[in-house]
Amino acid sequence: MKDYVLLIAALYGALGIIFGAFGAHALKKIFSEDLLKSFETGVKYQLYHAIVLLIIGFQFSFTETLQTAVAWCFIIGIFLFSFSIYGFCISSAKGKKLRFLGPITPLGGLLLVIGWILLGVSFF
């Protein structure tokens, strides 16, 4: 699990930089200011949580179920939260808003919150 978490952390980190640059340059021309802010929020949360995944990947032994649950909450939460924002923003800018992505974003956010709570619990 440790290697998997570290690999995903690196992948999310690299993609966060790529998406951030893409948003700042290419999408700036086609996004409204509100869409650009939403896209940037997705990038920020992705990068913040990629760093957290990297840290727990190095610190956790993953011998306890709780540690594995923390990692999965962050991995799935990042994907659902950030990537649903990217999809929603891009589809909105193209005039084909993917409305089904709307409820996915808070679900991803909830998993991130649960991941943080479980991380706190893991310290005890």
TrEMBL record:
Note the topology in the membrane: Multi-pass membrane protein
Q: From which organism does this entry originate?
A: Kordia antarctica
The UniProt keyword set, sorted, is:
Membrane, Transmembrane, Transmembrane helix
> Span of the secretion signal?
none
Gene Ontology CC: plasma membrane
In which compartments does the protein localize? Membrane
Instruction: Write down a Pfam family by its short name.
Output: DUF423
> What name does this protein carry?
DUF423 domain-containing protein
Q: Which family does it belong to?
A: Belongs to the UPF0382 family.
Q: Transmembrane residues, as ranges?
A: 6-27, 47-63, 69-88, 100-119
